[in-house]
Amino acid sequence: MNPFEKRSLELNRRAFLSKSAVGLGSAALASLLGMRFWQPGGGAEQASSGGVDGVLNALHHAPKAKRLIYLFQSGGPSQLELFDYKPLLNKRRGEDLPESVRDGQRLTGMTSGQDSFPLVGSQFGFKQYGQSGAWVSDLLPYTSQVVDEMCIVKSMYTEAINHDPAITFFQTGSQQPGRPSIGSWLSYGLGSSNENLPAFTVLLSRGTGRPNGQPLYSRLWGNGFLHSLHQGVQFRSAKDPVLYLNDPAGLDRAGRRRMLDQLEKLNALERERTHDPEIESRIAQYEMAYRMQTSVPEVMNIEEEPDHTYQMYGPDSTTPGTFAANCLLARRLAERGVRFIQLYHMGWDQHENLPGAIERQAKDVDQASAALIMDLKQRGMLEDTLVIWGGEFGRTNYSQGTLTETNYGRDHHPRCFTMWMAGGGIKPGMVYGETDDFGYNITDKPVHVHDFQATMLHLLGIDHEKLTYKYQGRRFRLTDVEGHIVHDILA
Description:
Number of strands: 21
């Protein structure tokens, strides 16, 4: 054969295989993202009406929950002031924490240098409520009225003793940054049930307990090594709820459509050149942003809510950016098919001046948290919406700094703390687990962070050991290499 002719055939074969590889790769990613092939000028067609499918072709078992609202209380709420009633601490106020109770536990640098660790009980009263007889603080009058809808877990424990690794552990399953967050795993596995809104949204609020306290980082709702399509989308209380969503001045919707079509062609060229599957995610994100230009203003417009709804959530619900307003938005997002809605409320890190600070902080969240449960229930949504409330760790039973008649602080305490869950397949009217009389160690039914995550995924129809992603030669999952479903709290 003529060598020039042979060379031409080789080039043609290379070109064919190269373009085939790109095409097959695009098809594979389209399948992964639940989308059919790209249609210039028309956006991405959806494989199923009204949403985008995830990587799971079928759920591992019948789900109890379709969506999740996670009310994360950043900073570490004191369980001893809210849910874990310990009268012994008031009886032995000022006495030093027995070494037999502490048992050599590592302390933070903020209290490790103290000469003594004086025990201190709550200055606030407690009463029992509901069929479970749950003890609830006077700081939470509204929450106390809905305990029959809740499962209060008093035996949570974690491994991290400082904020950043502790929050990262709860949100990603690892203390080291870089892993996908809970919402990203759910977006990857389950996809979205609304093609006009993200599967994973984030709302932030700053509490009045310690308004300039521990900050938060956007990587807490990041996608890690998953495609960027799965990262959380932060909704803000400002004029532009989602950054960079609005068109610049002088560009109308038709012009935006033409621009996206041309941009898709450029991205397609780059995709063929580099074979980078992330380009497909970028194209999908542009299309989602285009659709969100109409869906976001509609969902953020709470003026259509009736007055009795505002009264239910409390006076703060009319102030954008507050926890109450975000709870109301969470319900609106849930109604519209958003899979995972994450609220972060800052201000619980009360190392000093705890009595005054926690009273203000509890008032921020009490009425709205209870209202969210009642609102979901009256709309018939609580039974398939899982609501979670809790922070990254608890607080110590001894005072950080000087203990006075009216004032004290509490340091971080990972050994035991309280969270509650409601709806979505959780057994209502239940208190699970117990701590010792000092409120320092768990005595019954411990629940690790990975157990909590495994149970959460189970309620959504997912086997936590089977939702994995291969990265750098290892198959990763939210629960890392451990985690057990807490069957006792399932309805």
